[in-house]
Amino acid sequence: MSRQTIQSFVEGEKVNTSLLITQMNKGITNAGAPYVSFTLQDQTGNIEAKLWDVKEDALALIEAGRVVQVTGEVLKYRNANQLRLYGLSPLKESDFNPSDYVVSTSLSLEFMQKRINETLDSMKDPIYQSVCKSILSNYDDKLYIYPAAAKNHHDFVGGLATHMIAMLDLAESFCQLYPILNRDLLISGVLLHDLGKMEELSGPILTEYTLEGRLVGHISIMQSKVAEVAVKLKVEKSEQVTLMRHMILSHHGEYEFGSPVLPLIMEAEMLNYIDNVDARMNMLMKALDQTNTGEWTARVFALENRSFYKPKE
Hints:
By secondary structure, this protein is an alpha+beta fold. It has helices at residues 109-122, 126-137, 140-143, 159-177, 183-192, 197-200, 211-215, 218-232, 239-250, 266-289, and strands at 14-28, 34-42, 45-52, 67-77, 80-90.
């Protein structure tokens, strides 16, 4: 018998399946009754769940990172499915396959490696190329498994490389449409702008912010890395290195979104838009994948807290 997966849940359905706990928080209702909120996950997505009137002994061995057998009912709350839990119990590691609970990229490792390596080899400027190759070579073991974020967009195994490849495709299209753009500079921005997330985030499973991530952040981490590598390559005084650092520092586009500086060259302006387009499209696709045609998505906080309609046609 196949597992019930989150993507297949429908309102009113009774559920008896195994899911991974990624988050859990205890609370008290206005009436003083204890409850626990969970975020549960499998390879098809995640879902919020509530366990009401919970007894403390019922939470023995229940913690984030555990795979549990859950029983409950699927409800609709603010246009999103939610689970009302009746019970949950931890499973032994021998009772499940970990890959069933991890959301991963649809791109193959071979394709991602080939796409990024071909892009590096196609760069004409030796400084842009050498800095990018040097930095990427230090992250080859992490690049193809890390997420691009702890939540919101590309928050899955391989999400960082998936995000980069989509941005490379967009960058190539814009360079053809606007030949005035410096392709190597824009490509270097795409390749480098988010690599600091491999220091900022803990990893692809139960992703959290590291101490360095919270105190320094991926933008500062990577612009410093570019400066460090440039010294080793003896190109630190070149304009190209200054421009690459600017691309990284300005790629969030606005001060309020975490950019230490605003985009002040064409390629930096374009990098911000390309980054934003792919991130927003990924969030939209994720919300729409969980929505039936003719219905509205749940509100997407990162998209100005809007709901989106999924047309019937």
